[in-house]
Amino acid sequence: MGVTRFLYRAAGALACVALAGIAALILAQIAARLMGAQIKSADDFAGWMLAASMFLALPMTLNAGDHIRVTVISESLPAGARRVLDTVVTALGVGLMLWAAWHILAYVRESWVFGDVSQGLLAVPLWIPQLSMAVGMVLLAVALVERLFRRLTGRPVPEDDRDAQGHGE
Question: Which parts of the chain span the membrane according to its record (predicted)?
């Protein structure tokens, strides 16, 4: 599973690059406006980078155990029941993310097939910014499958280590 960890970290690094790109774009837009100019489609690019930063960070965040969890019910359960509940919820998450990834991939493919372009000042093929969303969702589905496999084989998931140390939410 070392390859998946690398992919999650690479996607996380690209998410960081997208956030840095938003900051650079905003600063460049401010500078351009001070000089009486503007950067064409800056809002579009900022929005696409925001989406990229969110979707590409999902698998790494899940794998690190840093997703926000609602633990009101699970904290009141014994450890064994908590693992069973997590296994069931993870299985549901796998199904949901596979469904979502499938439809997002179909959406990106449709944009590519029909040659959809953005409506901003710059005509950008929409499949390009949509691709980060698809990659993030596919990797999140893979991370959830990996998590389910770990649960079903009795291996710990990241939250187990944190909960054992008394750092639960």
Answer: 46-64, 84-106, 126-145
